[in-house]
Amino acid sequence: MRFLVLGATGRTGQHIVEQALAKGHEITALARDPAKVTPRDGLTLRTGTPTNASDVARAAEGADAILVALNNPRASDAPWAKPLSLEPILTQVAQNITALGKTRVVFLSAIGVGDSFEDTAWIMRVLIKHTNLKHAYGDHNTAEQTFRASDADWTLVRAMGLSNSDKEKPLIVGTATTPKPGMMVRRSAVAGFMLSAAENGSHFHQTPVVSEK
Questions:
Q1: CA dist 47 to 8, 33, 37, 90, Å?
Q2: Whole-model pTM?
Q3: CATH number of 2-212
C-alpha cells in the first residue's frame, strides 16, 4: 500500500515509517527538512509542511491513507513546559486533510480529548485544565471536531501516556473505561496499531483508546 506520513521525523512517526517500510509499503514523508529523514528504498521525501494545504494535497496524491503523528511542541514533555507555538497546528492539518474529500486518515490523538475527558484520571483532568497542556488539548479537540464534521474515513487514536520503552507488553484497545486502560503505551506499539488500522480499514469513525498492561 501507499501511505503519506505526517510527522515522520517525530518520535512516533519514525516508528510508523520504519514498520511500514519493513512490511513492504511505499511511504511518502512530508517534512520541512527532509534531511532529518534517512533515505531508504520505498521512501519518498517531500519538502513542505502539513499546515500548508497545497503541500499536503501534492504529497497525498496516490496515497491509500494518511497517517498523522504530529503534536503541539513544547520546550519539554513536562505539562508546564512553555509551548513553542500557540498556533492550532493539528486543527490546520485536519482542515487540510478533510479538504481532500473522502480520505482514509489515522490520526494520533490523546486520552482526555473529547468525550474521554470525564472518564480520565482526576489528576490528568487537572493537568489538562491548569497547565500548558490546555493549549495542546484545545487544538486536539478542534481537530477531532473537524474530522467528525467531514467526509473523511477517520480513526482518532487516543493514546495513553507515550513511552519510549522497548519492553514489549500486551496492547489494550478499548475505551477510556472498558477494558481499564494502562497508564502508558510504547510509541512503537501506537505506531503498529495505527499502521494496522490503515492496512485493514478498521476502526472507521471510532476513537480507540490504546495502552499497555
A1: 12, 7, 11, 19
A2: 0.95
A3: 3.40.50.720
User: If you write DSSP's letter for every residue of 95-144 in order, what string do you get?
Assistant: HHHHTTSS-EEEEEEETTSGGGTTTS-HHHHHHHHHSTHHHHHHHHHHHH
Among 9-18, 75-84, 99-108, the range scoring the smallest mean pLDDT is 75-84
Q: Which amino acid is at 105?
A: V
- Neighbouring CB atoms inside 10 A of 42's CB total 14
- Radius of gyration of the chain from Cα atoms? 16
Which residues fall within 8 angstroms of residue 144, CB to CB, at 6 or more apart? 94, 109, 113, 114, 156, 207
3-class state of residue 198 by DSSP: helix
Percent helix, strand and coil across the chain, each rounded to 5? 35, 25, 40
Query: Do 171 and 165 touch, CB atoms closer than 8 A?
Result: no
